Structure formats: C-alpha cells, structure tokens
C-alpha cells in the first residue's frame, strides 16, 4: 500500500539523518573512521533497538535485515565526505533531522500498539524510539545528552506519539493519522528551533547534598 | 498477605526515593523538566529493568503496569517543587534512600530466586537491582558512578541480598527474613554514612600504560 | 575435542585479561575495591552479554555458570595486588589483551553462526563481542571509548571475525580456521601497536552546528 511505502521511505530518511548526526558527533571527538561508523549505526538504530529489547520483541529489525546496517554505515561515511559543505546545508539538515524525529516517534508508537501493548506504553515507546538513539550517541561521546537540555526534542516526541495514539483510538484512518502526526511533529520541532522555545529548566546547585 | 503489602509499600517508597535522587541529579546538570522526568524514571526503574533483561524475564513490570511510571514521573516533578526545602530534609531523604536500597536489593534477590535461578545469581541480581538505577543515572548525567566511590553503597546491596538468600536457604520464615534483612541493610547504610565508612580505594595512576 | 578445550582456554585468558583492563581503568578513577570488581566483571562479560541480548539468546552464559563471575572477580582483585609490578609487565599484558580481542571476535562470530544467523550478522556480533566490553568499561569510567580512537582495535575485531566467517563458508576445517584467525588477529593487533598504525580520523569542529 502507498501509505506503507511512504512511511518506510520516511523511516529510511530518518535513520540516515540520525546516522549523519552520529557521524558529526563522532567527528567532534576526532574519532577514527571506524568509530564514526559505529556511532552512526548506534545513533540510527539505538532507539528502536532499546524499544524492542524493553518489549522483548525479537528478532531485532537490523538483525533480520542486515541491509539497513550497510546503508547506515554508508551514510556515516558519506557524512565524513560532505562535512565541509554541511555548514551551508545546516537548515536542510535540521529539517531532515526533524522528519526523522517525527517518523521515529510515530513508528515507535505504531509498532508497540501492533504488538498489543497499552496506549500509554505506545506513547512511552514512541519517545524511546524518537530520542534514545541520540541519548546513546551522546553517552558514547561522553556528553550530557542534549535532548534533556535543548529545544523540546523529547517533548516533540511525546506529543507526536500522543497525537498518533489519540487519533488511532478515535478511529481516524491510518493514512490521515500518519499525515497529521507527521506534519504536526515536524512543524512543532521546526518552530521550536526557529523561536528557541524551551521548557523551564530545573537548576539545583545545593552542593553539600550527598544523597545519591 | 500482610507481608506482601508491607514489601510492596516499601518498594513503592524505594522507587519514589530513587526518582527523587534522579531528579536532583538532573537539576545539578540544569536539565529541563522533561529531562528531569526521564532521569527520574530511569533511576527508579533502571536497576529492575536491567535485571529482568539480563534474566530474559518478560514482560517488564512497568510495561505491564504503567501506573508505576506515572507515579515516578509525578515524584520527579514533586522533587522540583520541594527542592528548595530539601536541604532541611536531607537526613530524612538519606533515610528514605537507604530504605530504597535495602528493599531493592532484597526484592531483586527474591524475584530471581522465584524465577528458579541459583542463589549466587540471586545475590548478583540483588546488587544489580539495588545499585544500577543509580549507575545509569550517573552515566546519563555524565559522571563517574558515585556508587563505586562512596560509603559502601554497593557493599550494602551485596550483604543485604546475601543475608536474605542465606536465611531463605536456612528455612527462616519469609516474614522474619524480610524484616531482618531490611533492618540490617538500612542500619548498615545509615551507619556507613554516619561514620563515613568506606572500602579501600585502588589508586592506579601509571599514565603511560596504554593497554585497553 | 582438543579444539574446544583450546578455544575455551583462550576464552578464559581473554575474559581474565579484560577483567584486568577493567580493574586498571577503575584504579585510574580511584574507585573502591567493590567498584574495581564491578568494572572488571562488566568489562569481561559486557561484550558477550550485549551480543546475547541483541540476539535474544537466553540464558546468558554467566548466569548459567556463575563460576565465570567468581573467576573474573578474583582476576580483578589480583590485578589490584599486582598493579605495582604491571609497568614491568606491560608488554606481556598487551599480548594477553590482544589474544583476548582475537578470541572474543572469533567466538562471537562462531556462536552467532551456530544460532543460525547470517554471516554478516556473525561479523557484526564478532565486533560487538570483541570491543563492547571495553566500550561499556569506558562509559562507566566516564571516558570517550578508547576503541574509537586507538590502534585499530575495532578494525582488528572486524577483520578477524570476517576472516573466520569467510573461511568457515569456504569449507576450511574448524581447527585450521580457528588457528589462522587467531594468529591473524593477534599479529595484526600487535603490529598495529608496534608500528602505531591507525585509521584516518574525522575531525569536525564546526561549532555552530546545532543539529543533534
């Protein structure tokens, strides 16, 4: 069906965009080319892999179909080649990343519902799929994960997955649901970047607290 | 049975205390509110989740019963609100945290035995359940995990889980076993903090070693 | 069979060597003895554990046979005792570590093939088994994982696993295959250290990029 092809196509754009963010993060830490490929792969498949491990849903997609890994590795290496011109393409790149975020959040929720889990867990897994690739990337690069600090990244995942699940349970046809969720998630993310929207921060600097 | 209710109640106190330590750690890194909630959740459920993944024990508790996640998220946000008075409550907080540590260690061992694993693995899983939530929290906040450095945290988990397993295999009734293990773990931890007990440290600073 | 005994013996050397690298890394962060043991265990079993979780292959080896954990804990503590003389043994130590890397990569690929997965996934899992113990160790010690930066570590794992899988699919008898792969991986790693071979690095320092 056309809708399956479109969502698969967008998902492919999403993992390739995530691979590119991973490769760039590796470059900032001056990793070698193999490190770039590994970070690219982990960023692209990390969120979905964590979701499937948490759900006990085996076999993992990239283990069943190894071509995804090869495409992701290629995207990571391509990123190294085109990095010098990336600064001129940074708006395009942010847009691709925003599509990836929205698609991952929707697909994460969709798959979780298909496996028979509750709508609340579907929303949680939408967030896991959408943001944890980037979290694992930042951990491997020894940084505080950016998504906890910047531009509503995780909130976009939460609201996009929630919108998808809410429409699904209210009988909205899948095709319309996917379109609306995707446009909503993408637009929300781009507006958050454009207008520097952010959530209130919690700043707790009482140093002598020794609870852990 | 009363004992089930008591241990469930203490477990709930434990996960809420862990959520609070997670929220405070997030505040030290000036995360936004969503980051606070995610770190709170991961700290509270991370140890038990890692245990169940290692044991292949599905479905995960918080996936079957999503209310735990909602309670943990609420505890994380509550922590943000009461943070200004936390410094006056730090002793109470340390006591709650110590209850959580003891309860998690005991429940981790108990569940592992119920699933039919060996007593040694039950002890290992008691430690995993007791301390790995905090380890994952510290990794996400980009710090060397505190539990490897401070006040016998991990040793308390090890000895508490060992005491529970040893009494279980020597026919001590569950009710008495739970009570003794809990009082032992809690007291040991509070004494370790009070008297600054610590284990010998291994300080290896030979820099030119390039093995990895 | 003799070949099974030899590979088991080398695997044991491998996990003990990995435990030692973990203990030394913990010592550099001045962890206490319990932290040393935990980091030693995670380094030694982390790669194989991650592989089996990704493959959904339960029960985990060290859960079925807890004696491995005890041996690893002992190796970690032994490392603390012999650390003062380690600088005189650093070449021996690098050689043991290189054996471990080669053996882990081969065993990782071998087990994955035995479970019926594709040759490509067997190679990926050889890399995971060979290097991710060290990656998890570096994350727990709050460092950028060394393997992404130094001396072809990950590339050795990739090529060693690839050699093993290629010979396997070309009918080379297991015994000869294991020997050649092992000698190849070990020699390649030692030469890379000796001649400071390294891969090209990707250095991307364009700071104003705010994609993540």
From TrEMBL, chains A, B, C:
The UniProt transmembrane annotation reads 6-26, 33-54, 66-85, 92-109, 121-140, 152-169, 175-192
UniProtKB keywords: Cell membrane, Membrane, Transmembrane, Transmembrane helix
Q: Does the keyword Transmembrane apply?
A: yes
Q: How does it sit in the membrane?
A: Multi-pass membrane protein
- Cell compartment(s), UniProt: Cell membrane
Residues covered by the Glycine transporter domain: 10-82, 95-167
InterPro entries named in the record: Gly_transporter
Q: Which Pfam families does the entry link to?
A: Gly_transporter
Q: Does the keyword Transmembrane helix apply?
A: yes
Q: What is its main location?
A: membrane
Signal peptide span: none
Q: Which protein family is it in?
A: Belongs to the UPF0126 family.
What name does this protein carry? Trimeric intracellular cation channel family protein
Q: Which organism is it from?
A: Shewanella schlegeliana
């Amino acid at each position: 069906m056309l809708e399956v092809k479109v969502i698969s196509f967008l998902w492919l754009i999403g993992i390739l965009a995530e691979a590119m963010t991973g490769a760039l993060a590796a470059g900032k830490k001056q990793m070698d080319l193999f490190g770039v490929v590994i970070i690219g792969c982990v960023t692209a498949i990390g969120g979905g892999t964590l979701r499937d491990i948490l759900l006990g849903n085996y076999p993992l997609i990239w283990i069943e179909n190894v071509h995804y890994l090869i495409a992701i590795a290629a995207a990571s290496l391509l990123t190294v080649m085109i990095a010098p011109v990336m600064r001129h393409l940074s708006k395009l790149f942010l847009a691709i990343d925003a599509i990836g975020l929205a698609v991952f959040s929707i697909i994460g929720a969709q798959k979780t519902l298909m496996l028979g889990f509750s709508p609340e867990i579907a929303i949680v897994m939408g967030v896991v799929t959408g943001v944890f690739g980037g979290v694992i990337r930042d951990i491997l690069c020894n940084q505080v994960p950016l998504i906890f600090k910047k531009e509503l990244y995780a909130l976009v995942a939460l609201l996009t997955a929630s919108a998808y699940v809410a429409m699904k349970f209210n009988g909205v046809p899948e095709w319309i649901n996917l379109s609306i969720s995707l446009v909503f998630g993408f637009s929300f993310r781009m507006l958050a970047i454009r207008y520097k929207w952010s959530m209130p921060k919690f700043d707790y600097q009482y140093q002598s607290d020794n609870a852990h």
